[in-house]
User: Fold this.
Amino acid sequence: MIEVRHLTKRYGSTLAVDDLNFTIEKGQIYGFLGPNGAGKSTTMNIITGYIASTDGTVTIDGHDILENPEAAKKNIGYLPELPPLYFDMTVEEYLLFAAELKKIPKKERASQLADICALTKVEEVRHRLIKNLSKGYRQRVGLAQALLGYPEILILDEPTVGLDPKQILEIRNLIKTLGKSHTVILSSHILSEVSAVCDYVLIISHGKLVASDTPDNLSKLMQGTSSLLLTVKSSQEDLENLLNTIPAVQEFHFTDCEEKDCVKAEIKTEPSADIRELLFYRLAEAGLPILGMQLVHLSLEDIFLELTADDTQSFTESASSIDQKGENLDDLHM
Ligand code: ADP
Ligand code: MG
Assistant:
């Protein structure tokens, strides 16, 4: 349905989107997940024909967005990060205006409006000025605008940002309902939102696709990943030599150690391997006392942080996020 190939966007020296490739199939809800500045809005603005790419192609139902914009855009409804609402219009005036811009035939406008206002539950505010609406209602009006003309594809940029928890749930439920009859792409920097709503997740970092899979598969991938925090009274070199002789150790990384004459390592092993006993005997044999050992299971949050962090920081960030888990479970404000 949508094919994105080698998509690249530069703003001066900033590489906002870096050789992005993905395909969107019909009838699913897709989530673009990534921290602020990852390139989500830029990608959406290019797919919807708002801005041009520096390189690469986007085709929608076979129509190139640059060569054949009208045909390509016909099937897309877009709710940008900042919806283009006119605050001095009533909801109805605004939606009629949007219908005109979308070239919806005059005789169809009234019935479409009634239908879409019912779907997005904005009927009771139809005659209110947009400036007097709550943020939740404004977002619904933005969605109604995107739905005009009954496009098959809905592209929603951070649709729940700035809403209170009740409004967030309402908008999420509305998106799920819309997902039954539309192909939806939504962006979010909140992991729990994407896993709650989407059938498929594309994780974007620094303009690049770093992972893409179903939420279930991503969780499975993550459950299999665990790491071991080990504090040993040893030199870095001695511990390094010993760890290098254990086949199940995939990689390790030394982190700051508060204790004198000690080293602290974060060790990643094969998913099924538990090397704690082995380490106990081997380190004892080598005369290197273990002062601390902790098994850490990486959650989806940690993986998200790890995948989207800078390469050099990924390990320490994922480790430090463990402390904050309680508070940050639902919302990764990055
Ligand atoms: P996201 O939506 O994931 O937060 P954006 O697509 O808005 O990310 O931004 C990606 C990168 O491109 C950021 O580094 C941002 O500062 C930069 N950027 C976005 N829009 C512009 C612009 N109009 N001019 C210059 N730089 C921009
Ligand atoms: Mg954005």
About this structure: The first strand starts at residue 2 and ends at 11.
